[in-house]
Amino acid sequence: MEKEADPGEEQSTYDPKIIAFCCNWCSYAGADLAGTTRLQYPTNVRIIRVMCSGRVDPAFVLKAFALGADGVIVAGCHPSDCHYINGNEKTAMRGTFLTEFLEEAGLEPQRFKVEWIAGSEGRKFADVVKRMVDELQVLGPISEEGEQ
Amino acid sequence: MSSPEPLGENDAERPQEPRRKTSQAPRIGVFVCHCGSNIAGTVDMPKVTEAVEKVPGVVVAKENKYTCSDLGQDEIIKAIKENDVDRVVVAACSPRMHEPTFRSCIKEAGLNPYMLQMVNLREQCSWVHSREKEKATEKAADLVKMGIAKAARLEPLEAREVPVEQSSLVIGGGVAGIQAALDLAQMGFKVYLVESEPSIGGRMAQLDKTFPTGDCAICILAPKMVELSRHPNITLLSYSEVEDVTGFIGNYDVKIRRKARYVVEDKCVGCGECADACPVKVDNKFDMGFGKRKAIYVPFPQAVPLKYTIDRENCIYFKTGKCKSCVKACANEAIDHEMEDEIVDVKVGTIICATGFDIYVPMKRGVYKYWEYQNVITGLELERLLNASGPTGGHLIRPSDGETPRRVAFIQCVGSRNKKIGTDYCSRVCCMYSMKNAQIIKEHEPDTEIAVYYNDIRAFGKGFEELYHRVREEYGIEFIRGRPAKLSENPETNSITIRAEETLLNKITEREFDLIVLSTGLKPSEGSLKIGKILSLSLSPDGFFMEAHPKLRPVDTAVEGIYLAGCAQGPKDIPDSVAQAKAAAASAASIMSGKKVKIEPLTALVDEELCIGCELCVDMCPYGAPEMVESEKGTRARIVEALCHGCGTCVAACPQKAIKANQFTDEQIASEIVSALEGEDGATGEERKASKKAEEA
Description:
The complex is a heterodimer. Chain A is of the alpha/beta class. Chain A has helices at 7-12, 27-36, 58-66, 87-104, 122-139, and strands at 18-23, 45-50, 71-76, 112-116.
């Protein structure tokens, strides 16, 4: 436990990394709209484009955490607005499972979010990223025991 | 599909030199775009290029001022040839913008068009981090590295070609839908026009005259309505609704509900004997509640088709089982109270969505007292009161006593440009329709005193400014800059006093008027929300349908083969709606005239070796694309390519990892994750921790 002695120092330079899986039709378009309207949000997020949030295998989320991501967002179309009829319903189901699983693994619930962001919601995209960065700043890096 | 034609293999002018095989180590070309100062103004481009040219597999990395320009594209082609590049990363704008551009560019250089990975440095980096240049540069380099990682794992794909149905569905029979249908029919395509109301004509049919020219709306619209109903290529489905749409560009299956009008269309001659006999009188929605109609009705005299419809809610027979006065009056035996809704299935290649708008309804407890004072009406109600075929025969009255108003005030921007109620946008027509209506009132009753309370006057169209001058100078209409704060009614005369701050005079004034007209704005129609869900269309922040690109693809939607026309896309006046309808028809025709259309090969594929036949993919797929087939290995899933939309839900669910999503494979996505989480040293968090632990040990 001695190696935990320097978290304060790490905290000050702590720059959380967030992976956001965005569906092509709504959330990726929402992120694009945040750009076209020049909304500013923190640089911590790396967007991975998928055609549907339903493409996001829970294994991708686990892999991201295992490789050092501090937070993961899976973003899709609003319920009943899915471009592929109901792909986001599957995302919602997998999200519930993942949330429970990650909590049991010791990760704080703020680190994983399923969000519905429409193509018109550039503002929401920016806010979701901002909020997660703020929350992760408070939490700090994932603790060692949390990783198992 | 049968005989797929590879997108990369049919270009006659293509250089004949042999391309390298993809089994060899990838040779990646990276092209980083400045986009003028859009990206380069924030991101340090040389630094990004420097960071990525060292990445294994990258054989050439170049910067470009404008990669999408002719020059930029030539440079890509040149670099591909000079360096024997077999896959390309373009780090520029959103793939939603220029992916097709660069696909055809690398195809020109002899590569498979799907060996392209775009990196979004503009919309998702420079524009959103313009105040953090250093961090944005760091992020940009990361994003390009992610793109390189994915590019290294790209596989060539072949677009398949499918035949295109030579027919189109037009949803909405307003002026936009009518024009689009006529244009397509004229070009020789079969058109199904679906209108939910008993007659086509839409909002334009309700208007009195049109601005700025003063043409009578129905006089210019009715000939088009009649032409449409008589056109041999057009099937008009009025009083009908689109229930379901499935399929894809070129091949849409449409389910249409023909609502029972309880009058057999083929037998009804539109004589009106039934309506004369009908004992029920109700408010006419078409006249905005001012006029009356019977329970069996046509909404307005020029209705197309001129077929009567029974309003089931108000018909005595449907309430009590007795009456049938209309049946007795109808000489043609056209009335059938037992009629039921009918479902019609049609197949079309393209769809034009022209679902129009609704009028903003003032708030129940708003300052303008629309629901409390009878003499406060909306702009569209005024249109009906001024209309010669309207409830008053074109004579303007005030609702409280039927007297001619001597003093009329217009209040602008009601339900427009109001952040509080979420309508930030300008409705674009209210300034002009108010001026036009003010002029008509003056023409009917020259002594009327008219004032317009406005915020800003927007007279931007052809002939608009001229009308603005005319109504002020020739008709003496007064324009008062200021938003009314309070309306109060004189209980005896029902006249209304407006208290307002006149911002040009910088004083608060009170003036009495006999009639107040609220210049209500436009909002997305209720029906359009339902249609939007059926067609999977996205909405803009204002609630209207979103176009594929605001500048360059203003009539296309993100869904291929579906186009927008008229106010469904946003408020516009009649000429703009007609222009957009013609553009939508031309876009639809350009697809249909090709006879065949290329479909993106972003579908799923099952590896029979890995599949265990669990059928989970069958449960997951909303399109029924996976089917179970018997092979020598047992029951295995197979994806029917024509049905697969490429969402990848089955891929995520497959417990055997037996399904592959083209262009979004597990390996490709995983490589992006790994790359995103790599540090400066190229090690992931996991690796860093492991080495740290090793050091400590």
